[in-house]
Amino acid sequence: MKKLLQILFCFFMLFTTTAMAQEYTIGILANRGIDSFYDRWLMHAAYLEKHTGQSFTVKPLSFTEIEPAIAAGKIDFLLTNSSMFVALKAKYHIKAIATMVNGTEYGGKISQFGGVIFTSASSNINTLTDIKGNTFIAVKKTSLGGYQMALKELMDHNIDLQNSSTNLEFANTHDNVVKEILARPGTIGTVRSNVLENLALNGTIDMRDIKILNQKKVGNFPYIVSTPLYPEWPMASLPKTDKRVVQKVNEALKQMQDNDLAADLASIAGWESALDYSNVDTLLRSIGLLK
């Protein structure tokens, strides 16, 4: 009932706003499926309308739908994972205007994330070298935290997932990867940091059933991680988007507080000035996805 009321409130906000000459579309990667997409992101459109005086809508996009949406001019802003942003930046000249900030269960705020490589607790796989010859399950080839970070880490350990005896599979969402690993003992998987902790927090999994491989300690980062950290998702603008509107959106996002309804529903803590994505560029070049 609470979520229904929140969604109705969002629609009320959107449709009672003064009619605008143009509606700006924010394409958002629905990396965990579309079931909860509008619960998470619809209020961002209402928030931006309130703070910019412009009209906005949010559009869920799968990994394969993002580039066609840009090429066809169907979106004005894009929120996607950091590696897709870097690859699309080179081709379509999109520009990061803000970086997502996440809250933690410990009261902190973080704007970086990593990848987690794991197996079931009952598995006899204990190190990265044990992966050879087994089945490795990732999210999607275009997923940074759900594939590319792990691919780079394994390459650094002389394990090439793309050219080895390891059977590589993709499950399309982070949640599906976790389900597959727990349902198929002896498989190995990777998801972005905080996915396991969130699933454990809501009772979907028991962390005692999970075995982490190559666990790292990176500064004060509060989540389990098996790879270095990279900057969080950027909000990007397309070259065709009115520069005055881009500036208004930039300013509005950075003013968002963690207790704003838009942030709460999106499960984030707000936004900060766009970070440097050069280490993502370096990662993509090292695994052969950029030249």
- Number of β-strand runs: 14
SSE topology string: HEHEHEHEEEEEHEHEHEEEHHEH
Sequence stretches where pLDDT stays below 50 over 5 or more residues:
16-20
Give the DSSP E fraction (strand runs of 2 or more residues).
15-25%
Provide a count of the helices: 10
* Main beta-sheet annotation: 7 strands, mixed
Task: Please describe what this structure looks like.
The chain is of the alpha/beta class. 36% of the residues lie in helices and 22% in strands. The chain contains 10 helices and 14 strands. It has helices spanning 2-15, 37-52, 66-71, 82-92, 144-156, 174-183, 195-201, 243-255, 261-266, 278-286; strands at residues 23-29, 55-61, 77-79, 95-103, 109-110, 112-113, 115-120, 135-138, 167-170, 188-192, 210-213, 230-231, 234-237, 270-273. The strands form 3 sheets. Strands 1, 2, 3, 4, 5, 13 and 14 form a 7-stranded mixed sheet that branches. A 5-stranded mixed sheet has the order 9-8-10-7-11. A two-stranded antiparallel ribbon has the order 6-12. It is globular, with a radius of gyration of 19 Å. The model is unreliable at 16-20 (pLDDT under 50).
